[in-house]
Write a structure and sequence with these properties.
15 strands, 5-stranded antiparallel sheet, 5-stranded mixed sheet, mainly beta
């Protein structure tokens, strides 16, 4: 199956004002970064897509195994060789954070070191993109896991996850 029209965009628009005696000076900023991906492997290309809405119990943890455990929406097993993009969006109704980490053992090297990660606050998001040919290498059995954890007890958390990558 082919991936077509794959595009990752980030847009930030803001205007800063400072009322003055006779005027209101403004500094308007718009930053748009858009990356398009072709179908395939290599620089600027992806051919695997995983996406899902998931819920973790209070203090729950799950490992997203990118080497043959996850399936796409057509039931095909996904075996990533490279990760090119990860998006995690925490539901606004969450009370706890959704922590995304590179586990100390068998972690996909998205972060600088094993055990590193980011806490995604309720209503927030985490986006990581590497459009180059290398991306983050996935090695079955030794570097194929992304860990997602509910940061605290008391309530469950819901999050959306989207992972783009390549099979070779």
């Amino acid at each position: 199956m082919a991936l077509t029209r794959t595009r990752v965009e980030v847009k930030v628009t803001t205007t800063q004002t400072k009322p003055d005696d006779l005027s209101v000076p403004q500094d308007a900023v718009e930053v748009l970064k858009a990356l398009s991906f072709a179908d395939g492997a290599g620089a600027g290309a992806v051919n695997l897509l995983f996406h899902d809405r998931r819920t973790l119990a209070a203090s729950g943890t799950e490992n997203l195994d990118l080497a043959g455990v996850l399936s796409d929406k057509f039931g095909q097993a996904l075996t990533f060789a490279r990760v090119k993009a990860v998006l995690v969006v925490a539901a606004a109704a969450n009370t706890n954070n959704v922590n995304v980490t590179q586990p100390g053992s068998n972690g996909v090297p998205l972060f600088l070191a094993a055990g590193d990660g980011v806490g995604v606050r309720p209503g927030g998001l985490f986006l990581w993109v590497a459009p180059d040919a290398a991306g983050a290498a996935v090695t079955a059995g030794t570097g194929d896991v992304l860990t997602v954890t509910n940061s605290a007890a008391g309530t469950s958390v819901t999050y959306d996850v989207l992972i783009l990558g390549a099979a070779t």
